[in-house]
Every structure is written in structure tokens, then in C-alpha cells.
Amino acid sequence: MDILDIIGKKRDKKELTREEIHYFIKHYVDGEIKDYQASALLMAIYLNGMNDLEISYLTDEMKNSGDTLDLSDIPGIKVDKHSTGGVGDKVSLVLGPMVASLGAKLAKMSGRGLGHTGGTLDKLESIPGCRIDLSEEEFKKQVREIGIAIIGQNEELDPADKKLYALRDVTGTVASIPLIASSIMSKKLASGADSILLDVKFGSGAFMKNMKDARKLAVTMVNIGKNLGKDVKAEVTDMDQPLGYAVGNNLEVKEVIDTLHGHGPKDLTELCLNSGSIMLVQAKIFNNENDAKIALKENIQNGKAFEKFVEFISRQGGDKEYLYHPEKFEVASNIIELYSKKAGYVNRIDALTIGESSMKLGGGRETLDDIIDMSAGIVLNKKIGDKVEKGELIATLYTNKDNTEEIEKNVIEAFDIKKTFKPNKFEGILIE
Ligand code: URA
């Protein structure tokens, strides 16, 4: 078998066999297939797609590229959640401690920032000392003892996704249903949870630009999981503006802390309560979502969810003083306030532009070797539906870079301000 033949087949819109997909994954992970060859195949998949059988083979081969965790010796139902990625999406860091504070066992493998979207692992690493490279033993011990652990893909667990994820990020091949479905589901299956909740986002800040594609991606992933006997559900939610106000790693962690104290943005808080209540029912801790939601709200009010966050971060080596005193986080040297050029109501905030601008300010990677500036990003001062006066503050940029005029212009233009405002009633759908 030869990688050139495999690339040629997909370029010519032909179906790949299990053996060919196995060959590609095995030899990309062992280094025999080079990045430039893998890039060509990824682009062919991006352009020509894969059928359901090819996607399930790809997922399985990626999962089998490393170890698969067996969590069966940890009592109870182990739950996991994953978002397809968005701008300002810090849900896992809020939701994980919330559900763990009510007895759920969250065993999660996350990813880094991808394209214009941020990643949970980078956000965790913005907390000084916090490790995401737990050994399998440490991971299982932590889930058993405190009910929550989050790790990254590594040489042992889903090494294929570790390499492919980073390569897709710099080759324009992220937004593809087969590649996203196999990336997410291979991680979820390798990390061993019994039930999985997916948040499939669509809109300008998401990889899926419309609801039809998001639904297709959701159905694809739910079916992969079901065929393997897992309880998988997928929410389809919109990402037409960033989630919450903060975009950028340590800025988002500060918003996580506010949210766990009950002072978070409404959209972020509501999404976490909805997803959390579904997960608690999946974990069979509650019989219905209403009761679960009441309990989640209580644990925010009584501080138990925040204390679980502190316990989780401390166990992974993070300095808890930053969580108790968020003012300790490094602040970027250059803080730029942006003001509205007109009066009216915010109708839309182009999340893609905000995500890309945050990346250019230093908050994300443009090439494989870029080092993220944990203090860089954007804090929105207005959200969709808000009234704005001419000259009022709409966004604040945080960066250690100079020459940001182009970025400033783009962020101001990302705000669509009109005389009137008609709310969008979409409330999300659940695929099960
Ligand atoms: N999250 C992942 O883990 N993989 C993707 O491809 C996209 C989002």
C-alpha cells in the first residue's frame, strides 16, 4: 500500500477501505507518512467528504492509535462532554465542576485552540502550574477521588488526534464533518466515559456555518457512539456572537470564576445549566432535568461548584491563589478601548472576526510553533440586544503587541448596530 495511492483515491472522490485508513493512521503516527502527505489527504477529505462507514473506520483507527482507558473500576456512570468549538466557549470549565459537585464523575479529554476558536487545554494552562499531562493512573485516581479530571491527547491516548488536530489547525482543514466527527469521537471513546454530551455549534463563530450542517454533524457523532453502545446526546446551539463577554485564555478563566460565583454572563450560565442538567440525568443522579437544574443553581449559590473547581485545579497542580484572587492573573501591557461609531441596538457580533482578532492579538496560534500569550484577547462590553450610544465603550482589547490598528477596525466592524432590534428565538435542539 502507498500513501500516494490513498491520496489519489480520495482526490478522485473514491471510497477508502478500512485497510487504507488503518495504513494512513498507523504510518502517520509512526512518522513514516510526512506532514505534507497527511495535509494533502486531509484536504482531499475536506473537499470530497467521507461516507458514514469511512467516518466510523477513521474514528476507530484514531481511537486505536493509542491506549483506551478502562474506567469500569470507578463506581458509577462516567460522563463526558465536548463542544465542537466556538469563540469564548469556556463551558467545560464551568460545567465540569458544577456536575462534579453533585456527584457526577467527569472524565474528559480536551483539545487545544483550533483555528479561530479557543481550547480548554490552553485555558487550563493559563492558570499557573496547571498540568494537562496527567498519567492514565493519575487521571483515573483523580476521577475516582474528586469526580473530575481533564487531560489532553498525548503519546498514549489518541496520538493520531494529537498530530492531526495540530496539522488541521494550520492547513485550513478544520471545518469538515468527517474530520471533526472522528477527532471528537475518537477522543471521547479513548477516554472511556459511559455517557457523552456533545454541543454542536453553528453560526459565524463555529466551524459549521448553518444549522443543517450542524445537525448532520450531530447525527453523525451520535450514531458513531450509539453503534458502540454509548449513551450519546448532542445539543445543537448557536454561536452567532461569542459566548459570554471574554475571549482569550486567562480572560476566560476569570469569567469562569465569576460564573461559578453566580455572577456570570446570562448566555454562558444558561447553557451550563441546560447542559449540566442533561448530563446529570445521563449520569442517573437525577430523574429529570428540572430537579437537576434546581440542584445546579443551589450549588452555585452555596459555593460548592466553585470549591469543586478549586479542588480540581489544585489537584492538577494549578495555583489556587489565582482562583481566590483573580487579580493576580497577568494583565497584558496594552489595553485598548474601542468605542461605537453609532447609536442603536447591537443586532450581531461577528464571532469569527472576534475569534480571529483575539488570535492575532496573541491569544491563539497562527502556525504550529506559535506560543500563546495567555493574557491576550478581547472583552466585549456589549452583547446582542444591548442599546449603545454613539461613543460608548463596546469592546476592550488586551495584547502585548503594537500596531493593532487593523485589528481595532475589524473588531469595531464586527458589531452590527442598527436602529431597531428583533430577537432571534432559537433555543437549541437536542439530538438523541
Ligand atoms: N474539537 C475537537 O476535538 N476536534 C475538532 O475537530 C473540532 C473541535
Rounded radius of gyration (Å): 21 Å
In the sheet with the most strands, the strands line up as: 3-2-1-4-5-13
Low-confidence stretches: none
Structural class: alpha/beta
Q: How far from one another are the termini? A: 39 Å
Whole-number mean pLDDT: 95
Beta content = 15-25%
Q: In terms of quaternary structure, what is this?
A: single chain
The count of strands amounts to 13
Ions, cofactors and other ligands present here are: uracil
Order of helices and strands: HHHHEHEHHEHHEHEEHHHHHEEHEEEHEE
* Share of helix, binned: 40-55%
Give the SSE layout.
Layout: H1 3-11, H2 18-29, H3 35-48, H4 52-63, E1 78-83, H5 91-100, E2 105-110, H6 120-125, H7 136-146, E3 148-152, H8 159-169, H9 177-190, E4 195-202, H10 211-227, E5 231-238, E6 246-247, H11 249-260, H12 266-282, H13 289-301, H14 304-315, H15 321-324, E7 334-339, E8 344-349, H16 351-363, E9 377-380, E10 387-388, E11 393-399, H17 405-414, E12 415-418, E13 429-431
Parallel strand pairs: 1-2, 1-4, 2-3, 4-5
Antiparallel strand pairs: 5-13, 6-9, 7-11, 8-10, 8-12, 9-11
Bound molecules: uracil.
Please give a handful of descriptors for the protein shown.
17 helices, six-stranded mixed beta sheet, single chain
Description:
It is a single chain. This protein has 432 residues and is of the alpha/beta class. 46% of the residues lie in helices and 16% in strands. A six-stranded mixed β-sheet has the order 3-2-1-4-5-13, with helices on both faces. Strand 4, helix 10 and strand 5 (231-238) form a beta-alpha-beta unit. Helix 5 (91-100) packs across helix 14 and helix 9 packs parallel to helix 10 (211-227). The mean pLDDT is 95. The site of uracil (URA) has 9 residues, from helix 9.
